[in-house]
Amino acid sequence: MKKKRSRQGRSQRRRYVGLLGGSFNPAHDGHLHISREALKRLRLQEVWWLVSPQNPLKDREGMAPLADRMASAKAVSAGDRRIRPTDIEVKLGTTYTAQTLAKLIRHYPNLRFVWLMGSDNLIQIPRWRDWNKIFMLVPIAVFTRPTYDSRALSGKAAQRYRRCRLPLYAAGRLAQSRPPVWSFVSFRRHPASATAIRSGESG
Ligand SMILES: Nc1ncnc2c1ncn2[C@@H]1O[C@H](COP(=O)(O)OP(=O)(O)OP(=O)(O)O)[C@@H](O)[C@H]1O
Ligand SMILES: O=C(O)c1ccc[n+]([C@@H]2O[C@H](COP(=O)([O-])O)[C@@H](O)[C@H]2O)c1
Questions:
Q1: Stated pTM of the model
Q2: How many domains does the chain contain in total?
Q3: Which long-range contacts (CB under 8 A, 24 or more apart) does 56-60 make?
Q4: Nearest CA residue ID for atom 17, ligand 2
Q5: Mutation to probe ligand 2, out of 86, 89, 101, 121 (largest number of atoms < 8 A from CB)
Q6: Residue 23 Cβ contacting ligand 1 at under 6 Å
Q7: Domain coverage including residue 58
Q8: What ipTM was assigned to the predicted interfaces of this complex?
Q9: What Å distances lie between residue 95 and 1, 68, 91, 128, 140, CA to CA?
């Protein structure tokens, strides 16, 4: 009886943290939108914006300095204390997500992480280093994004992990679920994109 109570106590103290990795070149309302959706729908306490030193698949040309991207992330998230921009990958010495996650899990044994990404990245994730390891390490929430969803849901990653997909109505349990597990969060789309902002469209 005593043992049961203390186990419950431990799980109540657990904090669930969403990780939104990105270039944030610059940060925009789309990032804010999916972070708030994640906090609410996945029942998270915090979302960390992992402002990437350099996306291994993106060109260095046109990539603003990390300090500028951090400043933009801080400005956009300023109104919401649950959202925390960080350049922690610099301190961890990682640019590959699988490595970042392995280190974060080791450094923060009392936190439970969930990887957050837009549906464009579900299409691309099979090109990431050790991508299957990412599915094994943390639950993954994929957010709806204009134009990408149907390709994402018929793509290699969605197909390979189709049996590990939690339906939307169960997304509130995603953070506590044992990987591999993922969910497609399709409540409301947001049209913003950094590419559009850089090219002078409204984003
Ligand atoms: N409007 C959006 N809806 C859903 N997910 C988004 C949206 N904007 C960004 N994301 C997600 O946020 C993460 C970080 O995105 P990133 O910083 O690359 O912005 P981006 O707008 O996709 O940039 P770019 O256009 O330069 O590729 C990625 O997982 C991306 O899919
Ligand atoms: O690990 C990889 O091989 C890898 C390849 C491409 C992108 N990522 C990560 O994916 C996240 C989204 O990147 P971006 O540039 O699309 O915003 C960011 O955290 C990147 O570090 C990771």
A1: 0.95
A2: 1
A3: 56/95, 56/96, 56/128, 56/129, 57/124, 57/127, 57/128, 58/23
A4: 22
A5: 121
A6: yes
A7: 13-190
A8: 0.99
A9: 46, 18, 11, 11, 18
Ligand 2 midpoint to CA 121 (Å): 8
CATH code at position 71: 3.40.50.620
| Each residue's pLDDT expressed in tens, for the chain with a length of 203 residues | 444 545 545 455 689 999 999 999 999 999 999 999 999 999 999 999 999 999 999 888 999 999 999 999 999 999 999 999 999 999 999 999 999 999 999 999 999 999 999 999 999 999 999 999 999 999 999 999 999 999 999 999 999 999 999 999 999 999 999 999 999 999 999 999 999 999 997 55
Q: How far apart are CA 37 and CA 12, in angstroms?
A: 22
Within a domain: 202: no
Residue 141 within a domain: yes
Please indicate, yes or no, if residue 1 is contained in any of the structural domains.
no
